[in-house]
Sequence to fold (177 residues):
Amino acid sequence: MDHKIYEGIKDIEKKLGKLSSAQKILLATDGSVTTILDVLKGHVNIRTLVQEFRESDEETASLLDINEGDSINYRVVVIEGKEPLIYAISIIPVDRLKKDFKEDLIRANIPIGRILRKHDIESRREIKSVSADESTPEMVEIFKSNSPMLSRTYNIIHKNQVLIWLMETFPYSLFQD
Fold:
């Protein structure tokens, strides 16, 4: 595990208290979160809150290593089983997508991990940060909890380029041992 992610988890524990094994795995994994959630909670689904194409701004262009104004897909979803489990934002440079991948993404109800697997896309995940933050009104509404939120950001890299930037968030109160 990357040293800064290990230190980030230790910082979260100093702030909030001990994290469960499942919480640590969800924050640090470089594998598919969808698969982990399927194992922990049974088959999960996606509820799409936002799905739109936009022009990248300066910050987004920097995150994705693209030009400002390039087309991106911006998607906000809740991954859920019987209850909301993860709130996720993904930003994807459209020019790096094959047609079939883009069509599955637009359908909006398929987790990104399953789309990658379906299209046999070899990729790796590069965890950028982990953090704990106060719950926002939107998170309270989605999760019905004002628990602090655990978050991570990461890139999915394909052919040495950022294919997808993601941020995943879930309540500290979830996935306790």
Notes: The mean pLDDT is 90. Strands lie at 45-55, 71-80, 84-93, 124-133, 149-158, 161-171. Helices lie at 3-16, 21-28, 33-41, 58-64, 99-107, 112-118, 137-143. Residues 3-16 form the longest helix (14 residues).
